[in-house]
Amino acid sequence: MNTALASDAVSTSTLARPVSQAERIQTIDILRGVALLGILLMNIPFFALGDNFDDSFRSDPTNVNFWVYAVITILFEGKMRALFSMIFGVGIILFMARKEQAGQSATGLFFRRMGWLVLFGLIDSHVLLWMGDILYYYGIIGMIAFWFRRMKPLYLALSVPLVAVVGFALITVQFHQDIRNKRLAFLSAENAQQRGQILTASQQQAITTWQEAKKQFFPDKAEAAEHTRLMKSPNYFTVASRYRQEVLNYQTNYLLPYIPDPLALMLLGMALYKWGFVTGQLPRRRYWQTMLLGYGFGLPLVTFSFYYSYQHYPTSERFLAYLETHPIIWTSLIYSFQRILLVMAHASLVILLVKSGAVQGLLNRLGAVGQMAFTNYVMHTLICTFVFYGYGLNQYDEWQFYQLYFLVAAIWTLQLIISPIWLRYYQFGPLEWAWRSLTYWQRQPMRRATPAH
Q1: What are the DUF418 domain coordinates in residue numbering (predicted)?
Q2: CA distance 28 to 25
Q3: pLDDT digits (tens, 9 = 90+) for 229-262
Q4: Residue 403 in 3-state DSSP?
Q5: Judging by beta carbons within 10 Å of its beta carbon (0-12, 13-18, 19+), is residue 109 exposed, middle or buried?
Q6: Can you tell me the distance from the alpha carbon of 56 to that of 65, in angstroms, rounded to the nearest whole number?
Q7: Backbone angles phi, psi at 447, to 5 degrees
Q8: How far is CA 309 from CA 80, 173, 220, 275, 314, in A?
Q9: Alpha carbon distance 82, 120 (integer Å)
């Protein structure tokens, strides 16, 4: 079934129109649905909890929050975003392939599509106030990934280890060194000040520079309390003042360092599509091999990395002390490799379930969630900001870490129920419909002629 669908997706129609229901690849929708729901596991603490929220439990294995945090970090942190990025890369190929095989130029359509995604991302971050929005970045990075879509899959896949090594050398190490140098210059100036010396202009600047960096990356208790006060305000504009400048800073000053990682993952997704991996076309034994290798090597690596951070820098204060004595956090290099190993293992597990025909009802629901991923992603923002922000139910910084995952389970249940019901009567999710209509600059048919069964 998946093989036929994959063929249909690149060869059937000659019209510049959205992919029809019959042309969809169910396995890709399911993987997208898994990634979308999994992303909420990592996002919800940043909707709900104050600065340095994990300082209170990351060094305490007797605390239930420690173990919830450990499981999520080891199994899901970074992996769900990686899977989502990979499937986004697949989407670029699927969007273009059918039109190009029909001899049509769809470049303008694609860039219009990404342009609207950038705008939706700006709305999600600056109007709906989700500081962790990815739509803006994916719209921009998608425009870059577009130009690589015709490369051979091997070259596409090689971008991942290349970015892992280069990214570690140029971004992780450089960032660490920059923060460390600012910290050491500050400590030197502070020490001189304590000895009664008159500070030079450069020493005074070192103090100012560190205080600005510290406020952004390592807020103290007073700064964290002020941020929480702003978030709990019933005034929308007061809450917005907490995030907007910080979000704008990330979307501009830190945009370039953010690009390589999602870009490499999108290219990996393209390679996996061309190899038939994400469409379930490979033999079962390949997925078993990938899953066992991924878990066999990835789990020990990520567990060691987690244990190392627990031992050496479980809190912000301990991290600053570690920063002062270690020029490089070498365990950061583990991250990219354990994440790829585990995301490939997770994807293989899901594809094996699809091929087995087991839990088909759940898989169908996950496919519906994935088909409405845009709508469901923004729904996460709407629900979580309403529950936690001051202009909603004002639950910000009121819950313990583990309690957040009861709400995650409730949102998952809601979307697993509502998404297939919606798609029974409508061809697209509401935001998917708006996005397609804006892309093709033509109102798309929304309601199904007859309800799907």
Answers
A1: 272-442
A2: 6
A3: 999 999 999 999 998 888 998 899 889 888 989 9
A4: helix
A5: middle
A6: 9
A7: -80, 140
A8: 21, 17, 20, 37, 6
A9: 21
